[in-house]
Amino acid sequence: MSKVNRSVRLFLSYLLVNPNEKDSYLLFQNFAQRLYTGSFDRETGLDPSWLCWRPMSSSEAGKVIIHLTDFFDWLNEKRPSSAKVNPRFVGTAYDRMVDEAAYQFRRDRAFLGHAWGTQLIHSRGHFLRSRREPKVEKLEPPAFPDDRFIQLLDEGFVVAGRPSYRDILITLLGHGAGFRYSEPFHLYLTDVREDPISKGRALVEIHHPSDGEAPFDRLELDCG
Predict the structure, then answer these.
(1) Which residues pair with 193 in a beta bridge?
(2) Could you report the per-residue pLDDT of 60-69, keeping only the tens digit for each?
(3) What does the domain layout of the chain look like in residue ranges?
């Protein structure tokens, strides 16, 4: 109940500082957006609304919206005709604001799946769209053990009693030079040569696929 109370108070606070937002689609959409981004202007660092809301996580904002959804559903069941229908309705200004919001929520429910943007759950017979949180693995990613790397080079690439130097060199480029898995496969023979500055060492040139050039002279000779 305290969480629902907090969610309703957040919504009422937003209504108080945005009295001109009459369109229910924009009202609920903008409220949900402020939950995710906070109320401070990112360029100036100021908050002209004085709400002083910090950005919420996707999970926290989603729970606020779920609480409001359930609250509006409950209120529409209890007082389905209180807003706009009964001019002699007795209640505080906050009661009228909440009833008006619940009325708009019931009226425009079909549009709020997109504007509301909460977790994908089944809530009182209707589905709500989700803002999914990024999944972060806290464990270290799987990696080949460093203490077995030399053994891998000596024994792991031996085919019919002969070492596969191509595979060994590709493994060295990936493990020792930090190249992506696909980058060694952009290589031509002309991309690997002796380093002119440091004799006895190899100079390997990895080009971006859109910038690198194939050895056209060799291709033209083969075709001729």
Answers:
(1) 203
(2) 888 888 888 8
(3) 2-127, 146-216
